[in-house]
Amino acid sequence: MAAYILRRLLLIVPTLFGIMLINFVLVQFVPGGPIEQIIAQLDEESSATDRISGGGDFGGGGGARESEYQGARGLPEDFIADLERQFGFDKPPAERFFLMLWNYVRFDFGESYFRSISVVDLVLEKMPVSISLGLWSTLLAYLISIPLGIRKAMRDGSRFDTWTSGVVIVAYAIPSFLFAIMLLVLFAGGSYWKIFPLRGLTSDNFAEMSFLQQVGDYLWHIALPVAAATISSFATLTLLTKNSFLDEIKKQYVVTARAKGLSESRVLYGHVFRNAMLIIIAGFPGLFISVFFSGSLIIETVFSLDGLGRLGFEAAVNRDYPVLFGTLYFFSLIGLLIGLISDLTYVWVDPRIDFESRET
Question: Where is the composition biased (Gly residues) (predicted)?
């Protein structure tokens, strides 16, 4: 197992390099970088000033490189050169790429282009929202889906199985953003009841509350976003649990255990449970990390939560490359490590699994 872990850790290096290289190359062909955005903003401000004052050029003479930066008329070339040096675009792309990787290896992600704050501090600032959504929605999905899936497997084909399957399918079919809007309309003062707050993770006077009040206020704010984030994963996990238990119940060792006179609960929880729950328990790290990193943008937008989902989206729109590539590097590294942790969880749940011997 030690050799398998070492190989997986070594494989992270070329995988991470490939992810960063592909995204860096793609970004080079995307128009509207940070310099272009600053020039466009200055051009708009200059046009607005001209309309008010009745004409005139911004910044005095100086030719603009129209072939490189559209809309840069009237801006002196030394000003554009200063912008290039400020953002590091005076260097060749290959040099910028390897310099970026060298900094990232040392976990130096630089500062945001437009917010004058380090990328690490920016991520830490947004982390509580994403942790809240990812952790609580994943735990809630498991707490609901596992008992429900086991119950459906034990009563396969019954009326209970039929109507709960209908509920699960409907829940899976509802888009998370539509369900989030419905929750807002019904329970956040949209058109019916104002039971839960409309936005935010805590109240304005959160710091003045006692500890128990803070816990209650936090749960009060997070209830609707977590419910909206849970609905699709809950449906998938329920059916996965049911099918996993049905497959195990039909195997020969279960028939043998029943023939020996073991009670149904002993057969279910003493023999079937560990084998059936293998794929579900071992998949917990991957499910959490997927909800944590990629599934929160729409939920954060609907409930006005400022988390990692909105941070990544705004960085892509604004071409804030330090934030974009810094978070990409960090999240990719975490995702690769979580993949290894998932494999180790399989071994922990069932020691009979040996990835090293399987490879040989």
Answer: 53-64
Burial of 44 (0-12, 13-18, 19+ CB in 10 A): exposed
Which 3 state secondary structure label does DSSP give 219? Answer: helix
CB neighbour list of residue 295: distance below 8 Å, 6 or more residues apart: 133, 134, 176, 229, 309
Each residue of 97-128: b (16+ CB within 10 Å) or e? beebbebbeeeebbbbbbbeebbeebbeebee
pLDDT tens readout for residues 298-326: 888 888 888 888 888 888 888 888 888 88
* Beta carbons of 65 and 77 less than 8 angstroms apart: yes
Which among 119, 141, 158 is the end of a domain?
Answer: 119
> pLDDT tens, 123-166?
888 888 888 888 888 888 888 888 888 888 888 888 998 998 88
Domain span at residue 83 reads: 2-119
338 within 8 A of 289, measured Cβ to Cβ:
yes
Task: Compute the distance between CA of residue 262 and CA of residue 17 in angstroms, rounded to an integer.
Answer: 54
Count of domains forming the chain: 2
User: Angle of helix 308-318 relative to helix 321-349, nearest 10 degrees?
Assistant: 140
Q: In 3-state terms, what secondary structure has residue 158?
A: coil
Q: Could you tell me if 34 and 315 are in contact, meaning their C-beta atoms sit under 8 angstroms apart?
A: no
Question: Which 3 state secondary structure label does DSSP give 110?
Answer: coil
Hey, how many other C-beta atoms are within 10 angstroms of the C-beta on 149? Answer: 25
User: The tokens of 40 are what?
Assistant: 């466009």
Q: Are residues 53 and 173 in the same domain?
A: no
Amino acid identity, position 38: I
